[in-house]
Design brief:
Length: about 300
């Protein structure tokens, strides 16, 4: 069985992630000091334009023994703060909004079920204490600050895009990994030369985060690709489609034909270019680049895409 993004959908491990609403493309933001709070003791998180370099957009997911997760942030320094679904605290809107509180692993209101939605890229985030789902509908509740709209808790609605959250792994810095790898190689080589100079049977260094090349991948099967294509078609905004393509390209390989089909459903040349920059490095049959080029009309766009295959 080929392992690809859709099959690995449910295997979230402990680690640092971005959490973005599929409907709006906005990221869950832990900078509770950015706006006036209704209750200082229960500071609400909010949603904001995704910024990959912002530490307040990074959440540490920690799996508990029952399978639920804590959603923690270290943005405020000191002790970790967790997303809290306690609905019995003061509220500013009709629907209760989650807030930050000192992480308490055994508290059900600090535990969240991550339920795959079936689209291959997003999850329902459901509180273990009350069964309510995290809702990113920015107009569905009274907001204490419209510039910093808070998600709220609502009855679980599996097919609502505002209940779908893309959980995207924060990438490991490549430069640091490579430098660490080079140091490891040098140290290993010196030690081996000192201990057994005449022999050269040492094992090559295996980096912790191996660089995956396209020739070693297997393209998505037709069923999984069709699900991805439907998700892209369903993206209401360019930012939605960008997030879907970015998440899928991180875990999958593609054929030139599949990329061509994606380009045909994207309405703007800039988002087609972004899609190509993400997917072309994961193409397994680059010798068929003419298939991709034939899917776009303008010669200037063909030239840009062609340069990416070189």
């Amino acid at each position: 069985m080929n392992i690809h993004f859709y099959q690995a959908h449910h295997t979230i491990q402990n680690g640092e992630y971005f959490i973005k609403n599929k409907s709006t493309g906005l990221a869950l933001d832990a900078n509770t000091g950015a706006y006036q709070q209704h209750s200082l003791a229960h500071p609400r998180v909010f949603m904001y334009g995704h910024n990959p370099s912002a530490p307040n957009h990074k959440w540490f997911l920690e799996k508990q023994s029952n399978g639920a997760f804590l959603l923690k942030t270290h943005y405020h320094g000191g002790q970790a703060m967790a997303l809290d679904g306690n609905v019995s605290v003061p509220q500013s809107g009709v629907h209760p909004s989650p807030f930050l509180y000192t992480a308490t692993p055994h508290a059900p209101n600090h535990q969240w079920w991550l339920k795959p939605t079936g689209d291959g890229i997003s999850y329902l985030i459901v509180n273990a204490a009350n069964g309510l789902a995290l809702d990113g509908n920015t107009s569905g509740n009274h907001q204490h600050s419209f510039q910093h709209a808070s998600p709220f808790l609502y009855a679980e609605t599996p097919h609502a895009p505002n209940h779908h959250w893309i959980i995207e792994k924060v990438p490991v810095p490549v430069i640091g990994s490579l430098i660490g790898g080079l140091i490891g190689v040098s140290t290993q080589w010196v030690n081996q030369q000192q201990s057994s100079y005449p022999t050269h049977h040492h094992q090559p260094y295996q980096p912790h985060q191996p660089v995956i090349v396209s020739s070693g991948g297997v393209a998505m099967d037709e069923g999984s690709f069709n699900s991805l294509l439907n998700s892209i078609k369903g993206g209401s905004f360019e930012s939605d489609r960008d997030s879907i393509i970015s998440s899928a390209s991180a875990y999958n390989y593609f054929t030139c034909n599949q990329l061509a089909r994606i380009l045909k459903v994207l309405g703007f040349s800039d988002e087609r270019e972004k899609a190509c920059r993400l997917i072309i490095p994961k193409i397994v049959d680059k010798h068929n680049s003419h298939v991709v080029l034939s899917s776009v009309t303008f010669s200037s766009e063909k030239e840009v895409i062609s340069s990416m295959f070189r």
